[in-house]
Amino acid sequence: MKAVVKGKSGETTFRKVVKKLPGKIAKDKCTWKVDKGIVIITLHKASKGSWAVQLSQRGLEQQSDEEED
User: Fold this and answer.
1) Secondary structure (3-state) at 54
2) Which residues of the chain have pLDDT under 50?
3) How far apart are alpha carbons 1 and 24 in whole angstroms?
4) SUPFAM superfamilies recorded for this chain (predicted)?
5) Which residues on adjacent β-strands are paired with residue 31?
6) Cα separation of 3 and 18, whole Å?
7) DSSP 6-52
8) Stated pTM of the model
9) Which of 1, 13, 21, 60 fits a 20 to 30 Å CA distance from 69?
10) Which of 2, 4, 32 lies closest to 18, judged by CA?
11) φ, ψ of residue 27 in degrees (nearest 5)
C-alpha cells in the first residue's frame, strides 16, 4: 500500500509505504483526509477477520526488505 499526499504546489508533503499488509484491502472503500495537519488513512479489509496475531508478531510491515512482492 502506498499513500502520497501532495500540497497545493504539487510537492509531496506526506508519504507512507507499507510493503505488505496482513491481508487484502477493499481499495474502493478506503478513504483519507487531512485534519489539523494530520493525515488520517482508513483502510477497509476485503474479508472479515482479525489481523491481531499477524500485527502482534510482525507489526504493520508484513514483508521484510529482502522479500519480493
Assistant:
1) helix
2) 69
3) 10
4) HSP20-like chaperones
5) 42
6) 9
7) E-TTS-EEEEEE-S--SS-B-GGG-EEEEETTEEEEE--BSS-S--H
8) 0.63
9) 13
10) 2
11) -55, -35
